[in-house]
Amino acid sequence: MGTKFVLREDEIPRQWYNIQADMPTPLQPPLHPATKAPVGPDDLAPIFPMNLIEQEMCTDRWIDIPESVLEKLLLWRPAPLYRAHAFERALGTPAKIYYKHEGTSPPGSHKPNTAIAQAYYNREAGIRRLTTETGAGQWGSALAFACSQFGLECKVYMVRISFEQKPFRKMMMAVWGAECIPSPSDQTAAGRKILAESPDTPGSLGIAISEAVEEAVGRDDTCYSLGSVLNHVLLHQTVIGLEAQKQMKLAGDEPDVVIGCVGGGSNFAGLAFPYVRDRIHGREVRIVATEPKACPTLTRAKFSYDYGDTVGMTPLMPMHSLGHGFVPEPIHAGGLRYHGVAPLISQLVNDQLIEPRAYHQLECYEASVLWARSEGFIPAPETAHAIAGVVEEAKRAKEEGRERVILFNWSGHGLMDLVGYDKYLSGQLSDFELPDADLERFAASMTNFPKPQERRRS
User: 68-108+238-445 adopts what CATH topology?
Assistant: First the structure.
């Protein structure tokens, strides 16, 4: 009855898995923000290097990981898989609970899996500087770390409410040599416009993306880097699931259900996509995506074309979206407060290969405190949403009186998020569920956009 399942360094995946090769329904194309025509590589060239654009549009099943990227990933990969024996006992469940521990990277989350790759490809393309956005700060700190490894400058626009709630994240970025400023800021036209309209805005990922893209477009030495949503980002994360499949064999089990939290979708896709492939090809495994009720993108939003940012600088993407003007409530799971989601995940939800679920903030903190008091590790508030899904599945197994094997992605530690835990433990947090009126109001911004076909597999 093992607790930790570890791969040797020479067992690290040497290729990324591209789910586009196996999807029953192909992705619909992103559209140019001005012409509304499908975008081509040249349309993306002002903000991304061509080597990453090629990955974004590639449908090959396997893509080799460069040796220079593998060398950096080996600082913490392969990451361990754990059996959560103590949590199982705390829940009194017959379920077996396994988790992939992505908190072992230098910044403490799954985000460096793509940050390292993106920094490498930008350096190879001759780029000297990267701009980006960050919500909770996990992505900003990951890109700051990756840029330090490849000699690039880094500037991070951090959602204002998280900038204030999570001060240690910006300090981590500074240690790795990055500049971090609150968004919206007075340094871009997009930021100044939003501040003039709403000087007290808490900010949003959509606003921060607008600022980072604007700065990247305005400088020849700079590209933009995104920590989630895009195809190549999710591709880089599949090392998580590929390792987990080998480790579950070491444990002598196969999951009945695979769970991950979803904001833009990167950590979820990293664990889930190799298992979605198995499901497409006939294996019985359920895939569950968890999100906040305060930001119910997959569970309540429309499948629509929408901008990835607030002011409309990015292509229109076919995705579940609350509307690009959506400003979420300042819940502490800052990484799950995005108005949209990865088009790959949206299509797989449409194809009924992924089950979305939403949870309240308080039940997520309750689950994560029980986790910390049994397993020891303190989860990030985002990870807590996955744990809430695990608790629901484990309780169902107990009610049914049967064993169930649960695998989830422990996407990052919460040691930079203790202010949220303090507020929870002192009774200062409350739940928020997006009202229908707000849902309709924000969705109205997409009324005149082209409509994607709601194609579903038969």
Answer: Rossmann fold (3.40.50)
